[in-house]
Structure formats: C-alpha cells, structure tokens
Design a protein that fits this description.
Number of helices: 4
Radius of gyration: 16 Å
Distance between the termini: 15 Å
Shape: elongated
Number of strands: 5
CATH class of one domain: Alpha Beta
Largest sheet: 5 strands, antiparallel
Structural class: alpha+beta
Order of helices and strands: EHHHHEEEE
CATH topology of one domain: Thiol Ester Dehydrase, Chain A
Helix content: 25-40%
Length: about 140
C-alpha cells in the first residue's frame, strides 16, 4: 500500500487501473448497493431498454476511483471530501474499464488534493468528474 505525504504529491501525478466489468461483479455490486434494476441483471429486459443490452451500474465503475485513492495516490489514510460525476455513455457487461485519476490542484494549508477522475472504454470517456481528497 502507498502512503504519499502531501509534500510528495505533484500536479499531474496520475494513477490508473483496468478492470473487466463481468456479470458476476455486477451481481455482487447489486447485492452490496441494493440496486437490482433489471437493466443490469436481466438480459431479456435489457434488450427492451434504450441500451439494448445489459449495462453496469455507473457507480460500480466510479468506485474504482476509491481504490486508486486508497491504494495509489495518495494512499493509506486518505478520505473522500467530494466527488462530482458525469455519466457520458453506458458501460456494458463485458467492457474493460480504465479508471484514471490525475492531480489538478494541491491545497497544502487545508491538506486537500483535487483530482480529475475519468473512466474510459476503448479510449472513449464514459465517466468524467472531479474529486477532492483529504490527506492525513
């Protein structure tokens, strides 16, 4: 596990993770979140939706940011202050998501780091946002 001090974090620092969005992970996320919307879990239902096939929970892909913060930048002991999320395109079961965070601002006095947060599928932005993280 990483633990970067505030002084070691620099503008432009980034981290990323790639993860396939499987039906099994969607089922697990449904149980955890209590969101059992059939557009995620029922292929027949999803065929009748605007997306024509099963989509993952947008928050499931967005949750990859939390892992990047807690394990990469800044690492151990950090805590979310805020997250802004814009869902730009659907992510389908079977897609491989690349989640990426990038440092955009550092407030040393308040011990807060601001990040650009994005999820990509095949180089297309699927989720776009910003976050602020408290640094221990």
């Amino acid at each position: 596990m990483n633990k970067l001090s505030l002084e070691r974090i620099k503008l432009g620092d980034s981290a990323e993770i790639e993860k396939e969005m499987t039906l099994e992970s969607v089922k697990l996320f449904s149980e955890l979140s209590e969101d059992r919307n059939p557009v995620h879990l029922d292929a027949s239902y999803a065929k009748t939706s605007r997306y024509k096939k099963q989509i993952i929970h947008g928050m499931m892909a967005s949750s990859l940011f939390s892992g990047l913060f807690g394990m990469k930048i800044p690492g151990e002991g950090c805590v979310y202050k805020s997250q802004n999320i814009r869902f730009k395109r659907p992510i389908y079961i079977g897609d491989t998501v690349l989640a990426r965070i990038e440092v955009t601002d550092i407030n040393i006095d308040k011990k807060v780091v601001r990040f650009k947060t994005r999820c990509f599928v095949k180089n297309k932005v699927m989720i776009d946002g910003e976050s602020e993280i408290f640094i221990p």
